[in-house]
Amino acid sequence: MKKVFTFIGLVSIAAFFNAQIVINEVYTGGGVLGIAVLTHDFIELKNIGSSTTTLNGATIQYGPATGGFTQYHTLPSITLSPGQTYLIQEGTKGGGVINLINPNLVVGVVVNFDGSPAVGIGLGIGLTSGKVALASNATQVTGPTASNVIDFVGYGLVNQYEGSGAAPSPTILNSITRTSGDTNNNAVDFTITLPSPSSSVLAVNDFNNTAKQSHFIKNTFVKNNEITFGADVKDIKVYNSTGQLVKTASIKEGAVLNVAELQKGNYIVTGTVNNQPISQKILKD
């Protein structure tokens, strides 16, 4: 029996240290009424390795700050090239002003491990504390070194996490984002940032919209009080980092929007290009 458990332990450790697809960003404030900018929580996966990797039969599992994992949902087969991201739209608190752009997966029904009926749509991720696992199957995760764990993030005041400490607490306005690689230490690997949901793995029908988005704003770093647009954009809205609408406009391709009245800082700009909703983050120096 001892040899069996030693072998299982070695398999677990090997998977733990060699994961290429990891949890890259977690946002938990989606839809908080009157405050949140984004309408939904999200979890973003990323291939941080050097080769293309595929997940089959994987799940996203969630647990509160204390106790075990309570819910999960399955993932379709995913193939990510190095650097590619996969955006998962989770639950909402009913508010917010900006929808996620081109999520790869919009989660509907989740499964409760205790067999009770699921309530709501998507995982109900805890705002400031909780734990999220990317698992290789639907078996309930027991901790960060469980044999089916591909990646594990405990954040805030939580009972389980990778390494010496938990990742910091997200807020209504901020997500927790991976700093670079994966040292298997949540306290080191994650930092607080503005949400930056990204979906670089797209269906064929999404490519045109991606091209539009890539030319939506030509200068996302604004130094001379002007934002230059690369397309005709209707219904432009500029939100500050607290979710307040601070400017509106409609712009022709190649035209500029003067934002001299806005203070330095991060903003989210939304608009409509060819009847497609577009969103992009800018920084005004």
Describe the structure.
The protein is mainly beta. The protein has 2 domains: 2-193, Lamin Tail domain (Immunoglobulin-like), CATH 2.60.40; 207-284, Immunoglobulin-like (Sandwich), CATH 2.60.40. Helices cover 10% and strands 35% of the residues. The chain is built from 3 helices and 20 strands. The strands form 5 sheets. The chain has a 6-stranded mixed sheet. Strands 9-5-4-10-11 form a 5-stranded antiparallel sheet. The termini are far apart. The relative contact order is 0.15. Mean pLDDT is 84; it is low at 1-17 and 202-214.
Order of strands, main sheet, comes to 8-7-2-1-12-13
CATH fold topology of the largest domain: Immunoglobulin-like
Strand content: 25-35%
- Largest sheet data: 6 strands, mixed
Alpha-beta content class = mainly beta
From the alpha carbons, calculate the radius of gyration and give it in angstroms.
Answer: 20 Å
Average pLDDT number: 84
Task: Describe the structure using short key phrases.
285 residues; six-stranded mixed sheet; five-stranded antiparallel sheet; 3 helices; Immunoglobulin-like; mainly beta; disordered N terminus; 10% helix; 2 domains
What is this entry, summarized?
It contains three helices and 20 strands. The protein is mainly β and 285 residues long.
List the helices and strands and how they pair.
Layout: H1 2-18, E1 21-27, E2 42-47, E3 53-55, E4 59-63, E5 71-74, E6 78-80, E7 85-89, E8 105-106, E9 111-112, E10 130-135, E11 149-155, E12 175-178, H2 186-189, E13 190-193, H3 207-214, E14 221-222, E15 226-228, E16 233-240, E17 245-251, E18 256-258, E19 265-273, E20 276-284
Parallel strand pairs: 7-8, 14-20
Antiparallel strand pairs: 1-2, 1-12, 2-7, 3-6, 4-5, 4-10, 5-9, 10-11, 12-13, 15-18, 16-17, 16-19, 19-20
